[in-house]
Amino acid sequence: MQKKQLNLFTTVMLALSAIIGSGWLFGSWEATKVAGPAAILSWIIGAVVIDTIAFNYIELGTMFPESGGMSQYAQYTHGSFVGFIAAWANWLSLLTIIPIEAVAAVQYMSSWPWSWANWTHRFLANGQITTPGLGVVFLFILVFTLLNYWSVSLLTHFTNFISIFKIGVPLLTIVTLLLSGFHPANFGHSVGTFFPYGTAAVFAATSVSGIIFSYNAFQTVINMGSEIKEPHKNIGRAITISLLISGVIYIMLQVTYIGSVAPKLLARVGWRGINFSSPFADIAILLGINWLAILLYVDAFVSPVGTGVSFVASTARVLASMSSGEHVPQLLGKFNRKYNTPRVALITNMVLSMVMVSVFRSWSLLANVISTSTLIAYLTGPVAVMALRRVAPDLKRPVHSKWLPFMAPFAFVLASLAIYWAMWPTTIEVIGVIVLGFPMYFFFEAKQQWRDTRQALKSGLWMVSYLVVLAVISYIGSRQFNGSNLLHYPWDFVIIIIVSLIFYEWGVHSSYRSPYFERALKINQNVRTKKD
């Protein structure tokens, strides 16, 4: 049976469906609580960080158009150990996205204003999902999974429909709220009022407010690489188009949110005192635009469901692809022949998502964990892409940018800074969760008779050392990022930039043709370039 492949339009819609999720429903509100009106800059910085990182992955994705590609590249260039760290961190971040989208939908439900919906008010208490709300979250996760269970074709039809709706509602919200009452004074009348919480807060908001999380979903395109038509062209195009569209929408939503808050409310409680359960819907109700509020409550289902469905597909393929590295059970890598879906991986992720949301019941906490673990995985991308140019210069490269020698270290620096912005102790907590996966790695290495373990550990020493150094810098960092203030702002940034460039060079020069490289060669042989 011929596999159903995704064309450019469907791939862009899939990416947008993943990118425009709960981030637009809560991100603007969360960002202004941290940075005030300067949160606009946070969204721009977040876009620059993710766009720069994505630039590196476009070359990798077109070289190796494979299912779950994000978890493969590092093991080609640095062996099983770095490959496992990258895959484990990336899978953890994707796994967390599934419940966070369900949490977003349930949180909006909890603020339904109608008398017949009073029963939904029990779903949220003190910013946390309650036990009754948890049952509804589980139901959402089940729906996300079932929509992926029966084929890419079903996913394609669902994604095309839902993505158009998800783009339309934010745009309608922007236009309606701007026309209904815009207050330029909310942006401040001086540098001090534009930056009410200082300039460091602008950078902190990028990680802790869900901004990195909101842009992160470009990797859906990478992880669906083998199912995309003409991947040598469409992977790069889909990532570029989807990030451009989503960046404009997110920045305009932030401008709209800041300008729509009532000046009297702002004067009374300040940006950090505004307590919305459903930010844009609450503003619409305060402005008397009830039809928009209803539409937003509907979209609070549609946007998270679209993102949740897309990420269930992506996360399952990442987990399935990890089996090729022989460090998770092989059963997880089996695809259903008829529907081309990794059903065991889908069910496994569903169960683990439910466990995770039972422990972490806050949207903002989940968003911060996702951002940090994702960025740790992204550290390996710039290193791997330049390492491949070093150890395998003759591989086919449908996209070969002359700017990569600059963009790769630049992306590594930005990812390092964004990890630091997540603040202590989140940095050490996420690194700790990644380290928890090490026993599984060594268990499967033992089963393989320690085939290449010595070389893999040697090639991965830079990565482990860097995680330790990042944790130490976070601990001694400036008070603005919850550190002990031994390093003062902005000198902490300078230290991270210098240290990250050292570790970047170490990482690139630690590469070798690992035992997994033969698989990379086979995939690359079938790649088409502009010359073909």
Offer a quick outline of the entry.
This protein is an all-alpha fold and 532 residues long. It contains 23 helices and two strands.
Topology:
Blueprint lengths: L7 H12 L2 H14 L3 H25 L9 H37 L14 E2 L2 E2 L1 H19 L2 H29 L10 H4 L5 H9 L2 H5 L3 H5 L7 H30 L2 H7 L9 H8 L3 H33 L20 H17 L3 H16 L1 H12 L12 H18 L4 H10 L2 H10 L5 H24 L14 H18 L8 H9 L7
Antiparallel strand pairs: 1-2
GO molecular function: transmembrane transporter activity
Main location: membrane
Subcellular location: Membrane
3D architecture notes:
The protein is mainly α and 532 residues long. It has a single domain (8-149, 199-247, 305-526), classed as Amino acid/polyamine transporter I (Up-down Bundle). The protein is built from 23 helices and 2 strands. The chain has helices spanning 8-19, 22-35, 39-63, 73-109, 131-149, 152-180, 191-194, 200-208, 211-215, 219-223, 231-260, 263-269, 279-286, 290-322, 343-359, 363-378, 380-391, 404-421, 426-435, 438-447, 453-476, 491-508, 517-525; strands at 124-125, 128-129. Helix 3 (39-63) crosses helix 18 (404-421) and helix 4 (73-109) packs antiparallel against helix 16 (363-378).
Q: If strands are numbered along the chain, what order do they take across the biggest sheet?
A: 1-2
Order of helices and strands: HHHHEEHHHHHHHHHHHHHHHHHHH
Number of helical segments? 23
State the end-to-end CA separation.
Answer: 27 Å
- State Rg: 22 Å
Mean pLDDT: 86
Largest sheet: 2 strands, antiparallel
Q: Quickly count the domains.
A: 1
Strand content: under 5%
- What CATH architecture do you see? Up-down Bundle
Query: What is the CATH top level name?
Result: Mainly Alpha
Unreliable stretches (pLDDT < 50, length at least 5) are none
Tally of extended strands? 2
Instruction: Tell me, briefly, the overall form.
Output: globular
CATH topology: Amino acid/polyamine transporter I
Range of helix content: 55-70%
Derived from helix and strand composition plus strand pairing, the structural class reads mainly alpha
Membrane topology: Multi-pass membrane protein
GO cellular component, one term: membrane
Subcellular location: Membrane
Keywords: Membrane, Transmembrane, Transmembrane helix
